[in-house]
## 1
Amino acid sequence: MAHVFELKTLLVLIPALPLAGAAITAVLGRRVLGRHAHLPVVCAIILSFLAAVALVFQMEGSLAGHKTANGATATYEEIVRLWSWLSVPQAMNAAADAGQTPPGWGQLKIEIALRADPLTAAMLAIVTCISALVAVYSIGYMHGDPGYARFFSYIGLFVFSMTMLVSASNFLLLYVFWELVGLCSYLLIGFWYERPAAAAAGKKAFLVNRIGDVGFALGVFLIWTLYGTLDFHDTTVDGQLVNMGVLGATRLSNPDLFIGGGVATAVCLLLFLGACGKSAQFPLHVWLPDAMEGPTPVSALIHAATMVTAGVYMVARCMPLFAASLDAQQVVSAIGGITALLGAIIALTQTDLKRILAYSTISHLGYMFVALGTGTVLGVVGGMFHLMTHAFFKALLFLGAGSVMHAAGGVIDIRRLGGLRRLLPITYLTFLVGCLAIAGVPPLAGFWSKDTILLALWERSRGAGEAGLFDILLASTLFGVLLIDFYTFRPFFRVFHGPERLPEEAGGDAQESPPVMTVPLVLLALGAATVGAYFEWTHGFAHFLAATPSLDYLARHFPQVEHVAELSAIQWKLGSTGTILTMLGILLCSAIYFTGDERRAERVAQAMNVIGLYTLSFGKFFLDEVYLLLVVWPLWLLARLAAWLDDYVIDGLVNLCGLTTVLCGAVLRPIQNGLVQFYALLMAIGVAALLMIFLM
Amino acid sequence: MHAELALLNNCLVVGAVLFGLGLVGFLSRRNMLIMFLSAEMMLQGASLSFAAWGRFHNDFGGQTLVLFIIAVAAAEAAIALALVLTLFALRGRLDIAAWHDLREAHLPPPLIDEEGEQVEAAPPRPRPRLSPAGLPPPLPPDMEHRLRL
């Protein structure tokens, strides 16, 4: 029994259980399991969560053991090889002038290898925790849906893909599961595929993601040609290094082994393009708001808490590559900053609660990338920390919105809702906790992670030569704090305060959701309230992540701040500034929206529109229209042209071939005249001809 | 030796003539019985060649083959005559040109000699019918209400 809790077994069990659950639900499905179709998947995900928690504790334990041994920060990395997928001994010839290519260079050997390091373990814990809560919530939310079994098998497949994505130890495997989560996202956005909007949204998400994936694929190809391997880890046989991984221990111990210069920037930017697609960053963010056509638990799980953070995880994982290119880091930060502001501004004026939350997700993902772009350990820890806290409060907000929808008969337009706090007390309280957490009110989760991001930005802005960009980003992030208050509390006040308004779809009376939905809400609210403070005070998260080999590399080779005292002093300053801004924002917002007075909000909107800001924000900066004009219509015209060519040119050629045969047939047809003697004559002539040929 | 060669030569000439006459008869005569006889003549021409070669090589293989051919020709005669009889009964004439059902649909029918012997054609015999596969057999009239269920 003890071996079940071995680290390697746990690491395999975490993805395997949801896959098994999904397979069982998909096979037995509606016919056998009926109303209990959720059981295999929900049980599997909960078990998988427990396994992830056990994994974290195991790793924590072994890290503590290491630390006492030699005092210095120990790193932890464990590779579990399952089987070899493909192996080509010499897939690429070593460059002629290189002479001393590292061992294993050019061997295309793809192993199904899982890795356990603190970064992966943290991601696994976050993903499985949120998935388990959302899966339980879905039991209530999806109750009675004709696609109940289908929904849960997709969810199981998604959790399998996502856990494999974060535990893959190879760029190719990462890519495979990157695509698989994209597929799950597509399937779940288009879950109600009878609705044209949902089908179109699924297609849009898939296509926009493809653009990013092209970049990712090119990045992987470039890594292959530069580093001659796709593995993250080193492979050793009997202590002899046989394959030097891209992010392996050998390379991490010697920064010269990383390729720098323009090529490094190209690799990083291509990888970042992939991350932009998956994590909905500025040029490619347009799919995420439309993805809200899917069921609300899907929005909470995939399009807020887990899948969209895959890009953040990928950039964090490849941080040593980004460390080789300061330009790429600046691009990451700048794109993140632009996205953060853009998403926040658009979120201010939307009227669909789920879309507001979607834009807020885009904005928060932007903050994560801002943090990662600083390229420091503090930045990566801040980004990952924000990823975790964001997963909690954003899942909470989405599930709260789902609960409102459930009560209001599927209506989510905040103009048609109001004063629901008495009808939905639990939803109201948990939603309030989520709003306070996302706004960054001190003891709640959002405060701590945002504080870390601000600190990382400040730290980087002290760096030589790049002060300008990061100072601007610091300022815009502080400004963003103000915007967050507005876009979270505006819908909050509209929906829960003011005069009571219920749409007719609710059927007269709205009821609080069943316990199976409110219990996950309460648990998530507890998480959103406490998780940040707990990890900040114990410093557990930072210490745990610092044991990741690639982050340890950053700490060793790019030490940024010497004065811890100065850092903690500025942390107080930044934290208090942020808090004051937050409080100010909440006060302003409640002054405008608390009473539900339409005219006051109207006047603010008009004041904003003096410079066209309101129209821009309400029209989502008209990016969809721009894309329509620049991309969709030219492509549509091209498609029409191709269709015309196909109809008249290609088909014409094909028809010509057919016509030739018909004509030949018409010429030869009279031979078939039905007369026995004529056939016999032809046969005799044929025999005579053959005899002539063969005998003469 | 010379005499043997001359014999072979003569026999082959006679065989070839027989075969050629048979071929011409088969191709040009339209009476089915004559055509059948012509075919027999071609067989005999070939048989004669076999026998001649067998003698020339002092080998019984040729004669053995001839015996086989005669046996096969007898069997064939039985079948062919039965066929000719049936065909005659169906169309009332022995003209082979009366049978042209395998021609391409739009081609004109061949010319058939109107004079010559003709008897009354037998009425077409009903062919056996099987119920089509995959469909239920027709229901008796008193149970047709079932179809509407």
## 2
Amino acid sequence: MEQSTETGNPPRRWDTRGREKARRLAAVAPWVLDKVLDPERIVDALERLVAPGDRLVLEGDNQKQADFLSRALAQVDPRRVHDLHLLISSISRREHLTLFERGIARRVDFAYAGPQSLRVAQLLEDNQLEIGAIHTYIELYARMFVDLIPNIALVCAEQADRQGNLYTGANTEDTPTIVEAAAFRQGIVIAQVNQLSDQLPRVDIPGSWVDLVVVADRPFAVEPLFTRDPRVINDLQVLMGMMVIRGIYQRHGVTSLNHGIGFDTAAIELLLPTYGQSLGLKGRICRNWTLNPHPTLIPAIESGWVESVHCFGSEVGMEDYIRARPDVFFTGHDGSMRSNRVLCQLAGQYGVDLFVGSTLQMDPDANSSTVTLGRLAGFGGAPNMGHDPRGRRHSSPAWLSLNTSKAEIVRGHKLVVQLAETFQKGGEPVIVDSLDAVPVGQAAGMPIAPVMIYGDDVSHVVTEEGIAYLYLAEGPEERRAALAAVAGATPVGLRADPRRTAALRRRGIVAYPEDIGVQRGEARRSLLAARSIEDLVAWSGGLYQPPARFRTW
Amino acid sequence: METFQYEYPAQVPGRAQVHVGVVGSGDLEVLLEPLPGALAQVRIRTSVDGYGQVWQNVLDRFFTRYHGAVRIEINDFGATPGMVLLRLEQAVEEEQS
């Protein structure tokens, strides 16, 4: 029964979103056959499908990009489509910001802006762009189901059939989540695909969730973001890797973990089959991973260290190798990998015992940030993996080993490890009295400073000087002393009192390499299982096919 | 290109002649040899200007732990302080082995 209010207003309609969607789709019907939109009409179609003020998700993370759709959106007439609220994991392409310069978009909620971080800061200053918030990936997706529900989703896939079923290939990544958020609340889902096919290798997203598919002018862009050339790893990174393996992985028995991107963590991966093997640690550490398919993990996989790897996304060149190792990677019945950024982030949050990553700046309380003056780079996924999830309820030896309380009811703690060489190249100290993130956040009008990893989540800090076991420190003052003891010749490190440091070493709160049996003289590149991309190709039996930019032969 | 010289008091004789590292980008070479007397002399040639204070800080810290009477010659090509200390420690490990 319909009810009317006492003021005589007409009865409320409960299907306005669905009716609006039907109205917009009808406006482009002349250019659509089955669910396939004429690519020549993409700009016209977007002008009819997208309305001013819409909340629009553009698929673009740190790897794959719906770039045909983003280039088309940047060409719409700003008199027809303007003031959009853009939701995007990673602001990484020129045209993402052209949307703001032309007034097509006004506000943005995002997670990462690495390559465009300078322009973001500039547009913000020029008042052409408003930032809602900078998120971690999983946070941004979460809000797509709560207070940032999209009207429009622009996504990409490798193949589609005429009913709109999508095959994403190995880079499934964010697509199912974005599509779900839009499709089930009467948003419009448009997928660009590399090709139409009658027979998909597998269905990653059902056609009933997708409104339109359009064949792109060229395959969607994807970046080999997780490839680290072992040639660039230096002896210092080898030393830090040895300390991590000996002083953290072995000591705590870490079997499940996530590695951040960087040469420090690539060094650890390449030391497992050599240094790790010499310590007899195979099978005892580093078995289950949440990790993109890093090529530098190949030697550890081939040496039998790795039981499983679940991936956020894929990595260019690793497709055939992954296909040939289905016992290790998650693969579909067609043989290609199935990645899923949300589920892997969730696994990295609750399922693994350790996160280790590098930072560009750390303050005396171990707060760390990759934000530097003039850049608004955002976070990506690191803060999600790099924190202690207080909702965790299952125990493991590594997690419980961080408990220092003797109370009847206790909890463990995730191992959150930050790696930092005390100085960057060029002589800038990494351990500083105050993070650049503080003035950057203030200048951007942010309510909180953009901190990547909060110090109170960090359990261990590793520098080339040694390891600070912060979780063992009693009180904040002792934590600061422990961190200063490994801060080297930075201003923070120079304030460390040598007698205090000696006492912290005796109590095991600080360890220098010699305290944990690590020989500095052994810290040489020759200890790496692979010292070049060619070595990685050889380890893979020719299955890894590195992109051209990594080939030197 | 800058050159620095530093001196530190020594308590034990130097033991051997040692060479570690290479003059490659981001790296440095350290030549260490025994020196008669009770002094350590350090001579640094670096391709990067303006870091005299950082060099001094790194060496001050190093010589709180090492007390050999040696001449150390450092040829630096933009190494970080961490790399400098690693090469010095490696030179000492080798000298004493």
## 3
Amino acid sequence: MSECDRQARQDDELTARLAGLREVTPPPSLVPAVMQRIAEPAPISLWAWLRRPRRFEFRMSPLALGGLAMAGLLLVALLARDRRPGPVVSGRPNAALPVKPAEHEAEVVLVRFVLVTSGAQRVALAGDFNGWDPVHTLLENADGRGTFAANLWLPRGAHEYMFVVDGQWMPDPAAPARIPDGFGHTNSLLRL
Amino acid sequence: MTGDASVAMPIESATLCSGAIRPDEEQALIDRCLAGDPEAFRPLVQRYQRVTFSVALRMLGSRADAEDVAQQAFADAYAALEHFHGEGRSRAFYTWLLRIAINRAKDMLKSKKRTEEPLLAEADAGQALFAHDPGSPEAHAGQAEDRRRLQAALLTLPPKYREVLVLKDVEGLAYEEIGPILRLPVTTLKIRVVRARARMRAALGEVRR
């Protein structure tokens, strides 16, 4: 008998013996346990919970719906009002002038504010046109030697304003007019 | 449930010859499960409980672990039924379920690191009560001893050899069926079976000494 035949016979014997392991009786509890497990609701993962579609029902009376619509219209009107052009700033003398707001063309005037003050680091303009904000409407040191300037589009009418030099409020020494601020000091007044 | 009982009875009697199953019958049961009727899964569990438990037992060597793995395999299969595509293929569900069972058994082997811890006495404990062959007590004792040796030798093999022997020689699956279960080409499987048998013979020699 060749080596190959001998090995084949050994394989056959081994296979026959291994086939004897097939005779297994599963525990009687297996089927009931499986059926109990699949009857229990599977735990839902967070991702599955987030992806699960939901139905929302929203009920509202016609009166409340009308009120909501009115509130929406009011909000839109307020937002539109807030989008009216504010002062547009540019301080450099050789720079292109700030873009004139497209809306209300006839109602705005370009004004150049200038303050000459040596040694100042930061000069801002605060007035009724920017809510007396002492920070954000900055004048540029246009010549680098203390000539601070800003060009603004302002609506026609009277405007009170002040300069804020390194945090100190001061009136415009070249203002065409001044007006008491009601607290013992004066604001600069500009009529357009 | 009268309707289920009439379906379940002939299937239960076929637990030892799971090859003779109509794919359309299985697919009908799966469709019922997917439609929200978990009770339709019962005939499938009854039909395949023996092979699932057997594969897990031969891989793990412990009846308790094998029952856990078999339960988990069925539960996983049920949860993933929507991803099963039998497409009318013969024994498609059978091979799909065995793949799940083999993977769960290997997961347990990894988690317990028990590859070198054979539980010799446990694997075939209780089998004598259920043996069907009417042989003599001496013959029973001899067969039980041989099964114990074989199981002990199986557990000394690395899982990659153990799984091919369990599927090919214990359960008698064709290479074309084992390929999708282990995701290996047939040529690789044939080589692995030859090596696994050689290792098994060597292990049996060691066990007998």
## 4
Amino acid sequence: MIAFERVTKRFGPWAAVDAVSFTVEEGELCALIGPSGSGKSTALKMINRLIVPDAGTIRVAGEDIARLRPEDLRRRMGYVIQSVGLFPHWTVERNIATVPDLLGWPQARVRDRVTELLELLKLDPRRFRGAFPHQLSGGQQQRVGVARALAAEPRILLMDEPFSALDPITREALQAELATIHRETRTTIVFVTHDMDEALKLANRIAVLDQGRLVQCAPPLEILTRPADDFVRDLVGREEWGLKVLAVETVGQRVRPDGEAAGVPLPSAMPLRRALSEMVARGTDRLPVVDDQGRPAGVLHLADLVRP
Amino acid sequence: MIRNRVLLVLAATAVAAALALPFLSFAPNRLLSGRGIALSAVLDLPWGVALLPGVVLLAAPFLRPSKTVLAATVTAAILFAAGLVGLAGQHAAQLAATAAPAARTSFGAGFWIMETAALLAALDGVRRLGLSPPLRIAVGAAALALVAVQVAAGHLDQLSILKEYANQRDVFVAAVVRHGVIVAASLVPTLLVGVPLGVLAQRSRAVGGIVFPVLNVVQTIPSIALFGLLLAPLSALAGALPQLGISGVGLAPAVIALTLYSLLPIVRNIAAGLDGVPDSVRQAARGMGMTPRQIFLRAEVPLALPVFLSGLRITLVQAVGLAAVAALIGAGGLGAIMFQGLFANALDLVLLGAVPVILFAVVVDAALKLLVALVARGAA
Amino acid sequence: MRTVIALTLGLILASGNVQAADAVRVGSKLDAESGLLGTMILQMLEANGIKTENKVQLGPTKIVRSALLAGEIDIYPEYTGNGAFFFNVESDPVWKNAGAGYEKVRQLDQEKNNVVWLKPAPANNTWALAVRKDVAAPNNLATMEDFAKWVAGGGKAKVAASAEFVESPAALPSFQGTYGFTLRPDQILVLAGGDTAATIRAAAEGTSGVNTAMVYGTDGAIAALGLVVMADTKGAQMVYEPAPIVRAAVLEKNPGIKGALEPVFASLDSETLRSLNARISVEGQDVKQVATAYLKSKGFLK
């Protein structure tokens, strides 16, 4: 869906993005991660041409984006930034309706879409429709920011450290909701973050950048178990590495199909780290597992968590 | 226990003025100085009653400033102010009955101080009540109406300032209109030049670096000097291109000078207003696919509007004042009346020109404050 | 949108000038006497069937004169003595002679500017000194010679005057030179501006010990406030007689102007002008009413 082909951007003598090539498949959530100055924001901003590359090509759905009028390109993508940037003088409804209005959608369709999105982002439409940004908390504002980005049903969503300015509790809630939205809408998402745990939690694929160079682009488990170099290893963090691996895999991946055990069953989609926590909390080394429909799927053994 | 120090100072000043300074001044003709007449000599019925609200003003500094007390203070202050004027008018009529037609009764220093103290007391009360702009305007209008009614009824006709008005009756309205025309005519070029200049100055540090220092220098040129500087080039231009219909005197130099003075507040406020637009708003707008024009019109302009309107308010009030000086180069307006009075050494004629200018400025200021309030409410 | 703005601008700027194209535009300076003379011109022209436009009391001398030369006004009352300054020939003694001065300025303005000077009024609105009655009477002061003798003999004179009067070689220095007296700096009170109303008032009220005022010959307040003018018997001052001056082209189009105005101006001697000025500046009567009343009383207006 999105392809970077040896893309380079220089600011003076220094290359912010240096001959980076990778692809993001349709429906994937790709996290761009790296320390400050690694070029991740710059790379993101080149996808909607807020920044123009000095060399290389970027293709979206096979098309070279340099050929399109920037405004048209941007109206087809959702864009969420850390500082949210809601228009203070417009209501929540009008803010969300920004791009549909630009595209000339009929009013009725816009209204319905706003209701739909408010519900999707867990904001009561009756209460929030007519509210103004200054009346909302930080978390609520960013929810509106995400809703605004999704309003025109874009196939691609670009997010630049959207949850970094929020408190941990709100951040977790929004991460969970993003995961749900991603699952349900199958939008392609490019997500910039400096928080490896966030990337591991949300992404299908992680692209690690170091001073403008792409160091590794792989699914989370591979980043954890087969890091390309020490830089990636350090980025992941050596402490509690084991728990991070457990966070990435799910119960369903290690369940033994036969057998029985006592206790409230674990859903098979639950991350193994949560399962470990449950076992410690309940003081047992095995728990029953159910699948998505609630049917018994086997037993999870503590020993299987630590097997190589 | 002193609850309102401001009001106490005003009341004390007014009492001191009433006792120590002349309330009115009576002169045998327009040129000679008059002899003072104290307030005590003037306190007759029926208009003496009009000073009773003054009792409220004397008591108020010691009362707890509840809403009732504040409202009573404001009402009393307005009534007292109108009462002072009425008392002066009554006494002037009494004096005129037995004096020569050339004799003049004018307001004395005591009157001015008491009147100002009363109006300031009203302002203080309005402020403490926290009234909204429309209500503030209503209070001001009421104060004005109480005096206007007396003028219309002819009660103040024997006061010197109104005797001067009687002489100027046919030119007075024309002067007021002309004054307004000068201000309005300068507004058009001010906005046409100032708005784009303000936008450019905010966007480009280089442009701002030239524009602001230049406008600052222009602002320091004394207005009479600027009119003088414009006289020669405009006359030359008028001579070369008579079809343009402009000249070195009159409306053209007045409008040009006023425009030059108005540019600084407008440009500064537009730049400040645009500066106040959060960068995140611009970023988000751009990232969502708004064209630069759409970002400007839909995001920047509405957010910068309140600051811009404040700048417009400052500009217009300044223009109303400067337009009075334009009379010196033949532009007419209320300034012409003021300067006639200066040349004839007739201070009440100067007042006849000056008081309307002040009222004009106050009205313009209030109207724009109302506009700012409406815009802010509409946006938020 | 832009055209609308440009048109509005153009209209506003031009509105000062685009009116009855053939009306004679009558201007005057800001002071009361000029206003009176200008108003008389206005009323006389209208009464004689000449359409006029009122630009009376337009501004100070420089503005009004420039306006005439630029063709923005057509006629206004000017003083013969001012010819000295317009044509930069101040030192020429001809200005101290009424007839010769008029002739000179008439010639110069006709040649250089195509401006016609009609016959002036026999009133000399020039600088003079006026002493308070209660000082003039006991000391028998009636002329500048008397005044000079009195001052030279130690008389306690204190003069209120403008800075221009004190410094201009044509003014106080000319008096001092012609009559042989000198005023010490502590005998002069300089008031800002050229305002004789302020100087007269100072002398009348004895402010700061002032008993003599700088006045103009036709000031209305002189007699009313109890001052006596010291006659300039030796002609130390330039002569300033008021006369209507009009652009030649306009006079050609409206020849009736001459006949309408000259008799009126001829009737205005110093005494008459002083009393008319007194009505305006001291009694505060309306200029228009004073003008009309006078013109009617002399039969110029029906």
